User: Fold these one by one.
Assistant:
Number 1:
Amino acid sequence: MVATSSSVGSGAAGAAIFADSESRKYRYFEPRAKRATHYEDVTVDVQPDPERYLIQDWIISFPDGRGAYEKNFTKAQSSNWHAFRAPDQEWERTHYQRQSRIEVMVQAVIANGRKSGAQMAFDAAWGKTLQKHLGAWKHVEFGLGCALMQAQRGGYTQMINNATLTNSSYKLRLSQDITLYLAEIGMDIAGWDDEAGKTTWLEDPMWQGTRLAVETIMGTEDYLEQYFAINLVFEPLVGELFRSGFLMQFGAANNDFMTPSVIAAAEGDYERNLANTIDLIWLLANDEAFGAQNRALFQSWVIKHAALADKAAKQLQPIWSKPHSKPVSFEEARAVSEERFAKILGELNLSR
Amino acid sequence: MSTLTLNKITAQKGISVADATRKCADLGWNPSYVQEAMTYPSDYKITKAPRDPMKQVLRSYFSMQEEKDNRVYGALDAALRGDMFRNVEPRWVEWMKLFLAIIPFPEISAARSMAMVSRLAPGEELRTGFTMQMVDEFRHSTIQMNLKKWYMENYIDPAGFDITEEAFGKCYATTIGRQFGEGFITGDAMTSACMYLTVVAETAFTNTLFVAMPSEAARNGDYALPTVFLSVQSDESRHIGNGHSLMMAALKEPENHLLIERDMKYAFWQNHAIVDAAIGTFIEYGTTDRDKNKESYAEMWHRWVYEDYYRTYMLPMEKYGIKIHHDDVTLAWERITKKNYVHKIGQFFAVGWPVNFWRIEAQTEKDFEWFEHKYPGWYAEFGDFWKWYAKLSKPGQKVITFNEEVGYVYPHRCWSSLVPCVIREDMVVGELNGQLHTFAHEIDRWTAVEAFADEFQGRPTPAMGRFSGKREWETLYDGVDLADAIVDLNFVRSDGKTLIPQPHLRFDDKDMWTLDHVRGHTLGSPLNALRGMDEATRKAHLADYAKGFTINPCN
């Protein structure tokens, strides 16, 4: 078949030479480096705005006159909201590849662990700890995932919102991974109460500080404050403290190789989300026009959310005493967490 | 004796799908320390928890999607190895410059809209569904951007693809796509993110978008678009389930019924106006395949929208006490079959070619025969127009937009759908905020004036959105020379003179229009002109407009 609607009998690149016949790069945005990355090509400017190409402005508004996306959806300001590029360069294909691999890994760990009877070898106190406290933690991940789903609507650019969206996806995946992990090992452990986690989350005094911190983030209207509070404050002070400082440290010592493997994926998720958030906040904190006021704003967010996270962390302390084998003390885990938090704040020239 | 298999040796009891779904739905709780912010309010009140119709958890979702992706990207590689572009029809690919400029924004808007619906109803059964839809839409948006990049890298004329998202924000045709996409994310959360997006756009119209159009692509040697878009469409059933479930929860409250009726009417009519204009044109005018045995767009519309959606989705809502606007469905059908809606839009796009960013080729005798077969009477109304278009496609001719010899009269723009008022006798004029506006149909006037207001039939609707911005594109270039407008739009190739749009498929510099060929014509705003008329002149103008125009014979 010959292309009948073409004057040159082909629709292929190079079949004819004419003006712009070799214009084979998107030329409406400035790449961060010399050449645009694949992530930039499929991400930049897909969400337009009146500064970048919407010559008719927003054509539908909310009843108060705000358009679909407005800069004042956050209190932070920027002289160039379009500058941010997510360091993890995530787009749909890489996202599914990563999420899918994690799910395959998690399911293999659980299936093989159960086949070998690993869950039956758990120290009894550890099993109860997982039932209650890992069971409670799944709600933390879920709440943060829901907050991020809300936040991914608010950013002024596609780059900000897509990074928030994938963060939400990671959190909600983890919440379900934990839920199904506990349900499956619970099938093999006599007397397992799969409802205990939610009861603990809602009622146990140890978890009420964490619930207050999470609900505060969920109730915040400022999308950037949600993103900031989750990745720069809550995660180092509570999230990593509990996941790395407790679950991953205590698992092996209590005859459990499965839980650290299931949770390990979340630590990998967090490294990416942390890098994305630091990069975005660094840009805003060092903005030529608005850097000083942004830093003051961020400082206020640190104070607000760190106070809640500190309270949450301290209330979790008794959990470190529950298992029989205690390879790490709460104080040691907390010191690591504090150090991590200090490093994050240091990157951004913020302080406690 | 039964056979021993590895599966039997290694099998272990797992959690059932129903149990997994139930446990994941139980992750939510009612916050008691701090209430969730209702950042995106709605006038609907939903007190019953919607049910999850899909029963899928993320564990199986991600691997399923990865597998779908592997097939898509494998097929794209295979298409290149098979030299697809050597045989592709440029007439078709040119229209993809418009389609793929528009569609990634509505897709990602749909992802954003999940933030709006997820807090509307109690319970968290649908959260997994919303999560999957959010990630699906992220998939659709970036997979479509990737497809467009792939066309740009491999198709004979990349111009237009290379400015795609800039063009989306500026073009007089993409403005209708912005109305579509913004409609998903702005205003009343239930109206926009559930009724307009999932209940109507996704349930009724994605079949024409993502199934009918890929079929036509394949007929034109383009195997990439079907590969990507059928994969996209395979995600839609989940989204349709989300929308239906949330609407059914809303239906349980009688006070929501009036709003459901309003939104079904608005959303159906506007989706018809926008999707049929765009997709109808792509399918009917972007193809070179004139097999008389294939379905026309009208026939496909009857199958997908009338039979599938109207008869099996909308009609059953009557048993819940919802008034269905049967007449609107009939009107839409008649606009397509009797009033030549799609053909008039195709004609409009062609008239405005200099302010496009893709090439539009003239229809030929072979096309005429097919059109006449499928739409009897077509040739009498449109035959001469396309002959004129072909004749005036050579640089140096007077551009068709301003060529009085042709007899075409540039249309008014509908303030509601932003599609031009091409069915001239249906245009109505109405007042909004003390100013005159033009509407393609009485239902469009109703949409802008009555539905998008702070009160509907005596009921306060404080969350409802408003139409805003510089909605009539022509206003932006009122009184501006055509060449200057094209420069301002940046629809010029990088030599600084050759236009990105061309009214033909001749890939040779000597045949291509430049700024000099279009200079000397002044663009005008029909709306500004109408507002500037005295009452008698306006009345006469509107009467004349309703009569339509006659294309002069082209010899």
Number 2:
Amino acid sequence: MFLVAFPFLHEWPFFRLFLGEYRTFNATMFAVWLLVLLGMNLLTGYSGQVSFGHAALVLASAYLTAVLSQQYGFPLWGAIGLSGAATAIVGWVTIGIPAVRLRGPYLAIATFGLMLAFPQILKLNVLTQWTQGALGIRGGVVEPPGFLGDVLDGREWMYYVAMSMAVVMTVLFLNLTRSRTGRAFVALRDSEVGAEQMGVDVPKYKALAFGVSSLYAGIGGGLFFAVQGFVSPDSLGLIDSIFFLVAIVIGGLGSVLGSIVGALFLTFQSEAISALAGFVPGANNLRNVFYGASLIAVIVLFPKGIAGFFQRPLWPKLRGWNLGRLWSSRS
Amino acid sequence: MDLFLQQLIGGIASGSMFAILALGIVLIYRSTGTLNFAQGQMAMFSMFVAWSAMSTGMGFWPAVLLTLLSALAMGALVEWLIVRRVEGTSDLNSLIVAMGLFLIFDGLALYIWGPLPKSFGPFSFFSGGASCVGGVCIGRLNLGILVVSIVTTVLLYLLFQCTRFGLALRATALNRLASRLVGIPVGRMLSTGWGLGTAVGAIAGILAAQSLGLDIRTMFFVVLFALAAAVLGGLDSPVGAVVGGLIIGVVKNLAGTYTPSSVGSIDLAVAFAVIVLVLMVRPNGIFGRPVRMRV
């Protein structure tokens, strides 16, 4: 219940009073990241498949939205829906189905390659008439429709759209993960062979996880373009894919709360690091060291991330870093 | 035809650099089953160590030696301190740890050496006139890269095939329990595998710096070609890594030469295409052995 209600906290009618323009933008980006991370968590946290190329899916969908809305005259919301659906189908058919044959490390390489190659593909001269090459595509200002125009400005309207989208998709996500399909994903993650023994159609569900995950990435990507009003081949890159991973691992793999915490992290991390740099000189440059170390520490000590603390008592977990193992030999 | 041969030779030279970077990846994969996505950033870190050593007035070869020793220690330390914590848990965990290492080395280098490119080479061994045979020439840089790569590969081959130590390393990669039973210190072997892989990566890094220069992003994309090479050859096959690296280098160069300029640069896309193609047709690579799965 808390999980569902949480995003509404910002939706109080007078939120403009205590959220400035910049905070509204923050909150909107939070909704976008939440969508992306839900998808990524479904793939990695629930069904156990790793992707280092999730930012490429988001970027692809942002581009599709940009091209459809700016060059082919689609209405923005229609373009976002179409891009989401298209990304889902692409993720399902062209990534999910081939990925069925690949074990973890190989899938990681393939998605890693996609991530590094995709910006270069967007810059190809033959695609410039659609993608505008390295310049990127600029979007128009989004105005709220009709009577809402008197109450809200474009930024706030954007916030409401993105956040309600995120809330609806979160509820759907909760339903999905508690359904037969969701349990099939978890069974896959815990043991593929075991899941097969229990009658789970492994290839079908592995591909499906990619499809659903891509749907979330796609809608997130469409909103990303709408919110930022701009997309270029370098808007999202490998480092963002890695940050998505950091976010869901620190937030908590395999839980909705984990994705929410992760989205908060993505939204505020650069600000928090800048604030930290005020006290610790060089903190800006040390950022990646800190994230990398947290990533490893969380995986070793608290595999369920921050969300895990809300699900289970803390103390037994602290024994996780078995210091004895540092010195003894092992099998 | 001359252009083709010229590009072929250039491709073999840059391919040999991918080959030894891939070799490092394969050595590490064989030792702990971790696919080391941080290989490029660790190599970059070693390159900066070499740069630092040289900026204190050290000669090129002593600096290289120092770098290799520090890379050896660094790799072994990483295995001993970090990778060992998640060993035998799941592929997902070791991939996440690899990404953690990626971030750590990326950030450390940024913190210590800053974002500005450093001037690093080409050194005397890698500069000079081209050598030509019948109209086809090879530049001194490419020749140097080729020689260093060949020497590295041969030395590693001798280490693995002709010494007791190499035998122990191979035994550990093949069957850990049986190795322990015959008295091989398995833990030490796994650390050594990481150390060797990192040191080989450092050599690749120094070679890459001769043509690409030295900054934090030098190895960012190069590692993709090495990964493509390792996948092509088979992730657990050192021979495959070398063959794969050469093929990737040649394909990359030829694709770069014969793609019309109206298309744009496609080298990364080519590497990605190779990866996808290999994984679709022969997921274990040319020389890899298939993996069986248990519940």
Number 3:
Amino acid sequence: MSALNIRHVNKTFGSTQVLKDISLAIDSGEFLILVGPSGCGKSTLMNTIAGLEPVTSGEIRIGDEDVTWHTPSERDIAMVFQSYALYPSMNVRQNISFGLEMRKMPKAQREEAVSRVAELLQITPLLDRKPSQLSGGQRQRVAMGRALAREPQIYLFDEPLSNLDAKLRVEMRTEIKKLHQRLGTTIVYVTHDQIEAMTLADRIAVMRDGEILQLGTPHEVYNDPVDMFVAGFMGSPSMNFLSVTLVSQASGYALQVHDEEQGGTALTLPWPVERGTQELSARVGEHLILGLRPEHFLEDDAIQETSGEGTRLEVTATVVEPTGADTLLQAWLGGNEVTARLGPKSRVVAGDRVALRADLSRAVLFDEKTQRRLA
Amino acid sequence: MANMVRRHTTSARLWRAGLYTLLIVAALVYLLPLVVMLLTSLKPLDDIRAGGLLSLPSTISFEAWSKAWSSACTGMRCDGMSGYFLNSIAIVVPAVAISSFVGALNGYVLTKWRFRGANLCFALLLFGCFVPFQVVLMPMARTLGWLGLASSTSGLVLVHVVYGIAFTTLFFRNYYVSIPDEMIAAAKLDGAGFWRIFWRILLPVSGPIITVTVIWQFTQIWNDFLFGVSFAGFDSQPVTVALNNMVNTSTGVKEYNVDMAAAMIAALPTLVVYVLAGKYFVRGLTAGSVKG
């Protein structure tokens, strides 16, 4: 049985439709992430789940109960907000136990719940402080504690980490993941940060313009994007899109990379034989978009042992960005500027000629107009 | 700005000296009426007839104060300001409490339980701030008569509440707008309803604006003369009306020291409220509810 079931939910504000026929089911214990650019409707969807916004049409079920028209307090839900939304006049203890008090839990049990949660989140020494006396990370913990104390059926996280600095964000991310693994809670989590989505989720729903474009595991969404938007949104640096023409060769299909400046074809990349589909044969001669992730490029030296894999390319590095763990290289490939992710040992500097190999076995092809995935 | 790098040249020092002189002189000018009032109220009548306004009293006497409080004549009655002072308190306390409470409630609804037309509603209320006292005199008199509250303390309280709600709503609405909606959403999810959120979440962080509203309303209502003189009955007149009656009396010797003492008595409560509550003006009690 699914913990949360959203069926054909629509939401309009005035004449703008912010949620378009959203359907979604989440299993108990699942960690679902709603991700998308700002204005895609992910926060609105979360607010409708919480009952903070009424739906225009559709149905929301929690467990086997229809809660579409239940007030927020009647739904067994807790929420962690981006601004933490702690009650400034109450100390940490009161903040955590307020929801329990509202639900008329006896005092002894409330205190037990507070100390359990405080221990779990390591905030026991802070219990008597006011929110104004806490750091950002501590406030974040208290906000989570307030949700955890209630032990609701579903937790909603609304961009909980975006107010933290980079280092703390990574720490808290790990901690949320640990908590989820330990407690087996059902979580719906909104973020615009695709790294958070990739690292935390059991499943990701990528949203745009009030629609769910793709719903799948992080692996599926990353490696099998349904269209160019999903492909470009997930992954950092984002996927390279090259404008190509599909041609038919004796050995199978190949892609001619255009060179807009000089006109004509800069180079030809053979398309893996095993990935040739029926649909491609109808597209021969058409302009398509080739999607190659930065890590699909390999520095030639690095794969000398397995030479023959992929297509050898020679490019001139325009920008080199060492990040420590790896080195990002930008170069012109035909008329397209592409980013390649090289190993940390790479000693390339800007201006160098670099030999790369493109591993097309994991590349993806899109229709130029509809931006839908072809192969 | 003491926390700024500055060059200490002679001309800069001269400027500074000139600036302070100007400010001190201005402060003295503003203080002068109060000084004159205080001095006059402490002088015996002979001193007043003999000397200038600023001369010091030959003997300090509180007789004028005690007469103003308990035995000066206001119109027909000669039992001082004390009764009227209590009348004023009986008007001000409930009027301030009710108008502030209703204002807080209005502000809460207008910002956190928004409804269709909330902005129009607020705009109309705002309009109430600009309605002059004189305009409402006649309709208010009719209304009070119709309600059976004419010439009573309750009637005056009602008038001041009605007139004050526009201001108190404005104050609270603008304060609550800055309180994050997420805090209210969190309380809703925690299971708190309309009144619980108001009492437990919002009011405890409303200290600064409650102070501002109370000071404003107290000053307005305590200092009001027009409504008092128009709607008060013989035994519900506020202190401002009594002061006028005392000072404008045309019989007997003009006792300036008693007049001044009475004026000081009438003005004292607003000063006291300001001094006592003023320090809460600047406290930001919401610090820490959101990212800081």
Number 4:
Amino acid sequence: MDIATHVFSALYQFGDAFAFLVLSACGLAVIFGMMGVINLAHGEFIMCGAYVTAATVHAGLPLPLGIVAGTIVSALVGVLVELAVIRHLYDRPLDTIVATWGLSLIATQGTLIMVGSTMAGVGTPFGSFQVGDYSYSIYRIVLFCAALGVLAGLYALFNWTRFGVLARATIQVPHMAAALGVDTRLVYSLTFACGAGLAGLAGGLYAPTMTLVPTMGATFIMEAFVTVVIGGADVFLGTAPAGAVLAVVKSVMTSWQGQLFGQIGLLVAVIIVVRVLPKGISGFVLRERT
Amino acid sequence: MSKSVLRGLRAAALTGTLVLGSPLQSALAAENPIKLGVLEDQSGDFAAATIGKVHAIQLAADEINKAGGIMGRPLELVPYDTQSDNTRYQEFMRRVLQRDKVDVVFAGFSSASREAYRPIVDQFNGFAFYNNQYEGGVCDGHMIVTGAVPEQQFSTLIPYMMEKYGKNVYTLAADYNFGQISAEWVRKIVKENGGKMAGEEFIPLGVSQFSQSIQNIQKAKPDFVVTLLVGTAQASYYEQAASANVNLPMASSVNVGQGYEHKRFKPPSLKDMYVTTNYIEEIDSPKSKEFYAKFKAKFPSEPYVNQEAENSYLAVYLYKQMVERAKSTKREDIRKVIALGDVCMDAPEGKVCIDPKSQHMSHTIYLAKVGADHAISFPKTWEDIKPYWLGEAGCDLTKKDPMAQYTPSNPPPKP
């Protein structure tokens, strides 16, 4: 087996781990980074996106439209949750943890009761390709590109659009933004919806590759929180580099010693980073800059 | 949704009281019911495979109560949702034994849960049925196991696969007692048959991403893969392996027969999966068809009638037979009946008998093959395979009750 095969396989595994970390974490990072809300129902927004995607595909829609539908429905559910629960708890950050945890229990158990214990999968599109001795799934490359696309899209949204400017103003000094005529409540709602929609997008993208069950969100949660904790409060300076660092740790450890060591590696990386950089990678970068 | 509904739902979710309606409790309000505790996972990672067990127990209890109960006493179910959580098993096992004072408990899916509650059954001198296939070796007079064990599932499956596909075997197993001990059995049987382990990997429960494991398998170039993956998260392997075109035959003791993966995933991701199971709904015999029809009549929306549902169903009837023959619900009286060695019944799978030495059960083992369109065929059937390993290794519950679990590398101490 030649060097190129090894290099490609390492890159593929890195890209695969990177995509999973970034896509799981983006929604959580937006909600935590922009609003300071720790959303324990994040996994259930992912589940919502996956279920809606699968349901619409079963109903006859093509997969890309199904993923869009999953994203939109999750974002709408996000708006409702923000209006009904989160809005009343902005000055009580610890209570939002309990409230969103409660929501996640309700969502998991409610789905189990109403939709049943499993849902039929939709099948992974595109097939596979061969490099050297190994064959790879093409869809995994699509997921990697989607992760890069999401990061680029978020960057554009928050830096180049009017909504992005208003959102950043609201997050930095809410009173001043309100005094200047920004509808801060609307901005909060939309930001939360954006985070929920990103979670739904992750669910929709991974729906074809996974078991569809009410508890599926839980399998994303550890990776999502680890990435956000390491990344810190900023989506671009935090989530993206954290995803890259963790993807290297995870893919190297997993190929060396198996899945268990991949998970151990992730958690050890968190302990080290939290000890050395309490505010995460983005906190470190921002402090250097000022 | 109003606040009170939300609160109710949340309370129900937290306390696990959302049990599926059991009308028989009101139907027969007789004086002195026989109480059967049901501790199964009705939510959480294992729920897909285990809700059917609860339904099977309800079906059997209904039938028995309609036919006059057990010795004229109605059978009353005391169900709790253990939420795929080992600590819930311990909590609810204490509750059914101490507060509800049940006569017998049917409990458990994962081996981790069983080993979590078994010391409590022993401590409070209870009586429990474990109606699930597992890694074998439990030699405990307080337990009756109706599920299949490795000498029934692997001693049949692995030699068949090695003959058909080759002698290089790769094991991909869940990383807890079930997966570790089952992998030990696979290793032992592969070696005995002159084969070689191309590799082994243990996957923590709850892992759902398998790209690297898939590559490890391709690197090892096995002739077939033994998949001992447990829980719905790990089931994502099949879809991901199929999309990476791994295209290796698979052998398993847990798939299809428990989690009906061939129904949940889009064909052909489970193509060439071979499973040894003592029951699945596709089995084409009059007894099986009759059981399936009764099940569907009572639970029309049941997604699949699996192996563990049948184990649970026949366990209720076995319990009835033993109580009626012992004329008592006391464990020691019932064990005297078991010691006679003729506790048998015609189950949906075929004839089954309880082995007095190990209190495990003989089974008809069906080799199920999943086709490219996910249709099931049965290339081979083994009738009356006995759970012989424990007895041969030295476990004899008619003489001594060590209340322990043994493995090939840790057999019972020689007398």
